[in-house]
Amino acid sequence: MSLYSRLEQYLEEHSDDAGPVRGTLSLPRIGMIWLAANLVVTTLLTGTLFVPGVDYGLVVVLIIVGTLIGAAVLVTVGNIGTRTGLPTMALTRGPFGTRGSLLPVAANVIILMGWSWVQAMLAGIALDFLVASVTGFSSPVLFAVICQTLVVILAIFGHTGIARVEPWLAVLILGIIAYIFVVAFTTYAPAEFAAIPADASIGYTPILVLDVVIATAISWTVLSADFNRFATSSKAGIIGSGVGYTLSTVISMVVGATAIGYVVLSGGEAVPFDPVTIVTPFGAPLAVVIFLSVMATNTMVVYGMVTTIVNAVPGGTKLKFLPTALIVGVISIVGSTWFGLLNQFTTFLVTIGALFAPVFAIMIADYYIVKRGAYTRDILRSRDGRYWYLAGVNWAAIVVWLIGAVAAYVFTYVWPTPVGATIPAFALTFVLYLLVSLRERSSAPAVRSEHLSDAAAQPMPHA
C-alpha cells in the first residue's frame, strides 16, 4: 500500500470532515481554540486602520462594543452546530433548501479562500522580515508559499491536529503580545496615545470602525458551527467560543491600534495594514506573533473550506477528505502569491458583511423560531423531505438574502445610518424572513430536539 493510500485510509478512519458528529471538547478547550483563532495578523492589522483616523480611546471602546455584538451572532450560530453536530454551511440546508444551500456554500468557499491568501501573504512578509534581518535574503512571495504549505499540511489532519496545536500557540502569542504592550506603554503613557489627534482625511469614522469590527465577527461566523459542533455541550460551546473570540479580537485589534499609535508618537509614517510598519519598531517578537498566528488561524480557514466542500450535499457519495484537502491546498498555495489583494482588504471585509450578515440572520430565525429549535434528520437527505422545498430550493430565503445583501450595500454607500450597515441589514433580513415564513411555522409540528448524530444512526426512509 502506497504512502498516499495509507494516509487516505487513516484520514477516512479518523477524519471529522463529515457530519453530524458528537462533540468531545470541553469548555476550556473550545475557549483556547477560539482564543488562538483570532489572535491573528489580519485582526491585528485591522486595528491599524483605525488610528489616527479616530481617537485612540474611542477606537478601543468601539472595538469592545463591536466585538460583543458580533460575538452574539457567532455563538448563536455556533450553538446550532453543537446541538445538531453539523458544520455551518451544512446547516444552511435548513432555511435555503438542499440545493439552495449551495449558493451560500459557494460564497463561503470563495471568501475563505480570500482569507487564506491574505493571511499567507502577511505571514510571508513577517517571515521575510525575520530572514532578511539575519541573512539579507528577501523574497516575500517565496515565504508566503512556504507558510501556506505548512498550513495545508496542518489542515489535512483536521480538528484533532488543530485542537492540539492551538492552545500552545495561544499561550506563546499572548506572552509576546504582553511584551509589546509593556514596550508601548512604558515608552509612552496611555494619555499620550489618547492625545493623538484624529485625522479625518484618512476616511475612517466611528460608525465605519464599528461596522468593520462587526464584519470581522461575521467573517468568523462562517466557521463557528464547524468548530463548536465538537463541544460537549451548548454551555461549553457558547461560553468557550464567546469568551475566546471576544478576548482574542479585542486583544488583537487593540494591539494593532496601539502599535500604529506607537509609530505615530515615534514620528514614523502610519501606513495602515502594513506589517512592516509595525514590525520595524518592535522587531522580531512582533514578526514571530504574525507568523505563529497565521499557522494557528489559517489552518482553521483551510480546514473550514475542506469541511464546507465535503459536506456540501447530504447523502449519496461524499467527497473524500484527503483529495479535497490537497486540491484546495494547492489553490490556496498558488493564490498566496497574489499580493495585490492586500490593497483591497477593507472592501473585502465589507463584502463579507454584506453577503453573510443576512445569511446568519436567516439561519438564526429559521432554526430558533421557524423550526422551533430543532432540525429533523431530513436535513441529512439528498432529496425530498422537509428541506427539499421547491425542487431543493427555498426561493423565499434566497430572495430575502438578496434583499438583505442589497440593503447592506445601500446602508454602507448610499444612505449611511447612525449605527452602520451591518446591524440594520441583519435586522431587516431577520424580520423579512420571519414574515415570509409565518405559514411554515404555523403549519409545522413541534419537533423534539435531538442530536443528529443519534438520528443518523437510525435507519432513514428511502429518498
List keywords for this structure.
Hydantoin permease, disordered C terminus, 21 helices, mainly alpha, 463 residues
Task: Please characterize this protein's 3D structure.
This protein is mainly α and 463 residues long. It has a single domain, classed as Hydantoin permease, CATH 1.10.4160.10. It is 71% helix and 0% strand. It contains 21 helices and no strands. The longest helix has 34 residues, at 102-135. Residues 456-463 have low confidence and may be disordered.
Write down the CATH class: Mainly Alpha
What name goes with the CATH superfamily?
A: Hydantoin permease
Structural class label: mainly alpha
Low-confidence stretches: 456-463
> What is Rg?
22 Å
Question: How far apart, in Å, are the first and last alpha carbons?
Answer: 37 Å
Mean pLDDT: 85
Strand content: under 5%
Number of domains: 1
Strand segment tally: 0
CATH level-two architecture:
Orthogonal Bundle
CATH names the topology as: Hydantoin permease
Q: What's the number of helices? A: 21
* Order of SSEs: HHHHHHHHHHHHHHHHHHHHH
Annotate the secondary structure layout.
Elements: H1 3-14, H2 27-37, H3 41-47, H4 56-84, H5 88-91, H6 93-96, H7 102-135, H8 140-156, H9 158-187, H10 190-194, H11 206-221, H12 224-228, H13 234-265, H14 275-282, H15 284-310, H16 321-335, H17 345-370, H18 395-413, H19 422-436, H20 438-443, H21 452-456
Helix pairs in contact: 2-9, 2-13, 3-13, 4-11, 4-13, 4-17, 7-8, 7-15, 7-16, 7-17, 8-15, 8-16, 9-13, 9-15, 11-17, 13-14, 14-15, 15-16, 17-18, 17-19, 18-19
